[in-house]
Amino acid sequence: MDINEYRKQAKKAVDEIADYYESIPSRPVLADVSPGYLRPLLPDAAPLQGEPMDSIAADIQSKIMPGITHWAHPGFMAFFPCTASHPANIAEMWSNAFNGAHFNWICSPAVTELETIVMDWLAKALALPECYLSGGPTHGGGVLHGSASEAILTVMVAARDKYLAKVTAHLPDGEDKEEQLWRHRSRLVALGSAGAHSSTKKAAQVLGVRFDTVPVDEESAYAMTGEALKSKLAQLRAKGLEPFYLTATLGTTDVCAVDDFASIAATLAADRPKANGTTTNGTTTNGTTTNGTAATNGDAAVAAPGEVWVHVDAAFAGSALVLEEYQHLTASFAHFHSFNFNPHKWLLTTFDCSAVWVRSRADLITALSIKPAYLRNEFSDSDLVTDYRDWQIPLGRRFRSLKLWFVLRSYGVEGLRAHVRRGIELGQSLDAKLAARPDLFTLFTRARFALVSFRVVGATEDERNARTERLYETLNASGRVYLTSTVVNGTFAIRVSTSTAAVQEEHVQATFDLIAKEAEALLAKA
Question: For 26-36, what is each residue's pLDDT tens digit?
Fold first, then answer.
């Protein structure tokens, strides 16, 4: 394909993509295909000779499109959204045109420097504490990753290495220190609430450390509290284990619960280790356990104990921090170590784009930096520049900041606020409609950050669960909406997220009408 053919085909593709966007509301939300549908439609091997672009484009419509679930559909109210926008799409075209690995500043200075600037812009828009800014007092800063799962794994690596360095700092380098490092590693525990995203458990699995949960309950609105955390820390240490990391959540996946950051910060401030290995609440962190038994390694009594790294995962609901009425939630973040949210979920920035900030960039760099000769250059060696390869697990990286720059400039902070606020108001609208039909529904959790969860009424818990599950299956089979479910402490509920960019009040009304109609039919048969 020469440049003239590229112009022709690219313009044609843009027109076809625009036509696709206009056609989305008339399509079924979910792909109506069976597993393995695509293999019989395609050859067993790649063609030996190139095929014309017109043939490839035709196969998009005939073979690929039937297997696409339309995340931009106004009936897509499942999971949390992947919102996109035309400015972000255009930025992706430019990013693909520049096409580089961008691991060092010298690879493309604009890629690195724009990321630093845009992450500071975004931190200010969210009212994050000053410590997370690139020029902040603790030398923190932000970096773009592919997903919140990647961000959590990355900061957990930094947390592990920081903890291990602290508890073995009193030992000289050598075989004994290496042995003690491995003994401590064997006792490490990563924590999250029972409602934390599974990515924390997966990160612990990848790192080969234990994972445990802090229980939540209905009384706390399914949020983790400092008191529950304190109890869990004591339980673990009584077993000789060493908690080193905690994921706190702003907007859990199940029900959009917000953990009690203030009480968590207070608990960990009291838990912060002193030089003698005890905490201010009287427990012992890694010398002797809280039941009075000696730690097995024998060295911790003279070690400086490590602290628990706290990461705030706000993958979906973090976008709501652009609204001033939610910015009070960031008040405790200065006491924590890192924070992430996904602009690709609710902030009109195409996937993938996960923003993560750390209070101290040195924690990431110390854990992740390697300097083989082929990556060295005069700018990196002089410490005059940022090399974001040292802030992530992979080496290569995409030009993700470009689409954020396009979105922030095209919409402005006020435009993004209007978009997020509309999603929240639509959730409140659905909440009110469901609450107005107590003969059909009970609200499991009220509208939070554009998420509502509800159940079908019934005489017993088992009956409510069974009816709600049947309604859920019927709704998704309709092709008009796509919803997801959750199970919290044995309770089955249907989740409805009203944050997809295309959703308007008319779609919320149509969705409620469908839900009510099918619920009435279900109860009539009971």
Answer: 999 999 999 99
String of DSSP letters for 331-343: TTGGGSSEEEE-H
Peptide bond into 352 cis (omega under 30): yes
Number of residues in the chain: 526
d(CA 248, CA 197): 10
What pLDDT, in 10s, does the model give residues 241-280? 999 999 999 999 999 999 999 999 999 998 876 645 555 5
Residue 245 tokens, joined? 């990391």
Residue type, position 12, single letter: K
Give the count of beta carbons closer than 10 Å to the beta carbon of residue 213.
16
Identify the residue whose tokens are 């652009």.
322
Per-residue pLDDT tens digits for 219-236? 999 999 999 999 999 999
The alpha helices in 436-504, defined as continuous H runs, are 461-477
Q: pTM of this prediction?
A: 0.90
Distance, in Å, from the CA atom of 158 to the CA atom of 363, rounded to the nearest integer, reads 6
Q: What are the structure tokens assigned to 210, written together?
A: 């234990």
Q: Spell out the alpha helix ranges (H) of 106-258.
A: 109-125, 148-167, 175-185, 198-207, 226-238
Structure tokens at 56: 């490839």
User: Which DSSP symbol is given to 298?
Assistant: S
